[in-house]
Amino acid sequence: MTPxxxxxxxxxxxxxxxxxxxxxxxxxxxxxxxxPAALTSTSVAPAEPRDxxxxxxxxxAETAAPAPTEAPVEPAAPTENETPTENETPxxxxxxxxxxxxAEDTAAVPTRWxxxxxxxxxxxxxxxxxxxxxxxxxxxxxLDPSGRVASxxxxxxxxxxxxxxxxxxxxxxxxxxxxxxxxxxxxxxxLMANTAVLALGIPMVPVTLLFGPAVSFVVLVTLxxxxxxxxxxxxxxxxxxxTPLAAAVGGWFCGFSPAMLxxxxxxxxxxxxxxxxxxxxRVLVLTRSRRPVRDGALLALLVTAQxxxxxxxxxxxxxxxxxxxxxxxxxxxxxxxxxxxxxxAGVVTCALLAGALLAYPLxxxxxxxxxxHGLSDAVKDYGNDIAAFFAPGSxxxxxxxxxxINLAPNYSEENAFFGWSLSMxxxxxxxxxxxxxxxRALAVTGVFFAVLSLGERVSWWDRELVTGPWxxxxxxxxxxxxxxxxxxxxxxxxxxxxxxxxxxxxxxxRPADRxxxxxxxxxxxxxxxxxxxxxxxxxxxxxPVPDFITADRWRAYVGPDQTLVPIPVPSMGNTHxxxxxxxxxxxxxxxxxxxxxxxxxxxxDPGRFGGRPSGVGxxxxxxxxxxxxxxxxxxxxxxxxxxxxxxxxxxxxLPVRQQNAEPLRRTVEELVGPGRQELDVWxxxxxxxxxxxx
Length: 694
Fold this sequence. Notes:
This protein is α+β, with helices and mostly antiparallel strands.
């Protein structure tokens, strides 16, 4: 090869300068999982190599054909009057006159006015679009964060706000982070077993202090959607695809899929998946790492951080990586020979370091006070209907809540709902790219977890068909705490990766009319994604925190070891009292609340929503719902007094604007006597009844 020929070769991809452990080789297999180039290799050698990321040039060494050998050709030495330069090209491509004209034109344009579409600016533009989309989705709650909440289920936002206020106490007062008595007093709540989102709440402490937990909640939802999309975009553009549009499409779907939109109204801890792309990549890096101990330690830090965001999503990630790697090895067992040593060393390092960092928190979660084993029966059998995979999600452009009423456990668990067009497109992508190893492995992973998401009973349009495989897995350790319908989140990520690969392959085609192919690709994406385009989340108004609470009038009654009892008593169906406490950064304790705890308060029992059953609490909740005043006797009055003493109640508080406030007021007066109105609440001072010294 002459110097002129070598200079005429295309410039290497900018990513080629990355380290060997971080970047893939598009020419030579560097290991068993040599990045996308190796994973996308086909089992049948093509007639000629491709230029795309899925190049077959990086097939495993055992199956690759030997390259023909050629005698080295010595380049001709330049003469005294002939010195090659970097910008030199063959004479037939460019004339001296053209060179002179181009130089004059370039010199005429000042350098400071040139616009360069750099990689950083490209990333900023894509991130800005994702942020605008997240603001669009949360626009209705941004109008009034404290006065609006997701329709239908108001308990989860109140619970998250309570946990955000707990993070303030952890930072400012050094309070114990894994357990609290500020609600469900005196039994308390095991926060490690209730996803206390410490990794999200602690960084949000300044926002919570300045603007309140309601604002922190909507900030987390907005950043969770945009951050997850951006994280997948960066990982895809760095390690899987070269085309920016392909990475943007994949990141978009991973961040704004119908499943993510479904959880956005209630579960910021579930949609905050911005660490997952990097966890997945670090796992794949371990299969070909030259420094597995270092890479295993980095993975351990990511795992530890994700454990304090959401452990269930971390478990899903581990299961998905395991199934994906098994799918690869089953197809090409030869890869295991070079992968098992670095993978084993890295996994052991990760397990030891992450285990050391999480040992005490996990001990509290599984053996500490108020620990439970297994989920409540109310959610253990949550599963997707098969028809849910072909219907658009409720919070999307083509969605319909009424049409989806029997296809998901509830509107906060629409973990499938891809729509007919996207489901058919995903199947078509797998058929089209079936020769690529990574596509086959992704297809196996997506289908496997889609089947598990059907739950214990497989149904079609709410009609039970057969028993699902989840019935044999639900009793296994760790899996007994999983909500099976959420396995659909893994399938959503798989579809996002398939979309990215499909766009990359379509953009890399070299037909006579490339513009037509790209227009058809864009039309296909619009056809598949437009029906599930995100829409603003539905919101309803909620009662404001009473002035009696925000003006600190309660402080004249409630001592450090006493409780303020909201009427009705806080429970899964009534969480307003939790918002009151959160608004004061948990400066007072409350009984009851919405949380997971062992049945009857016995540590180690199966889980249930709420603490010990309260007969009077259930009665007051029924009055609040129906407006009917019950007939009371002395036995019920004594029982209510005993419960108030157990709670160490100081005052009972009933908002004047509470639903069915008048029947509730009459009921409480029959139990403890007359109260008095103070600001916007009715107050009953019961310290004389509950003082244990009397």
